[in-house]
């Protein structure tokens, strides 16, 4: 209990956490629409996901990019989990992390999330405002 009191009585730590939360919140407001607009309209129309843009690169480059992408996803996942109890957009940050991480069943999970009516309406609204076609799903 004394340790917890010490943490919350440290103004520098509180300011740092507040600034990190604000940066993550603003970042999520910018990154989520950017990511949604970059999804090809037919991304969810197949049974399997599309190939990544760097699939044809040299194997070393491909593995380095894959490693960096997953490290970024892991950092965002940890930050999102922390923001569930700290100020910030924890759930949004976790969703962004899922986009960057590679794991078995990821495509099916993304598809399920994007097929939720409220998510689909929001994504279609955002894409319509940007002049992009809505996402196509194979039912």
Automatic annotation (TrEMBL):
Transmembrane segments: 12-39, 88-105
InterPro entries: Uncharacterised_PGPGW_TM
Alphabetically ordered keywords of this record: Membrane, Transmembrane, Transmembrane helix
Entry protein name: Transmembrane protein (PGPGW)
Originating species: Zobellella denitrificans
């Amino acid at each position: 209990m004394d340790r917890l009191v010490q943490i919350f009585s440290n103004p520098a730590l509180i300011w740092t956490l507040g600034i990190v939360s604000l940066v993550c919140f603003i970042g999520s407001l910018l990154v989520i629409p950017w990511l949604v607009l970059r999804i090809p309209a037919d991304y969810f129309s197949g049974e399997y996901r599309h190939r990544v843009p760097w699939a044809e690169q040299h194997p070393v480059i491909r593995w380095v990019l894959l490693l960096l992408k997953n490290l970024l996803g892991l950092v965002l996942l940890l930050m999102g989990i922390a923001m569930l109890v700290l100020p910030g957009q924890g759930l949004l940050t976790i969703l962004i992390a899922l986009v960057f991480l590679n794991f078995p069943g990821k495509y099916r999970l993304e598809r399920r999330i994007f097929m939720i009516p409220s998510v689909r309406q929001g994504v279609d609204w955002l894409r319509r405002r940007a002049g992009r076609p809505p996402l196509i799903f194979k039912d």
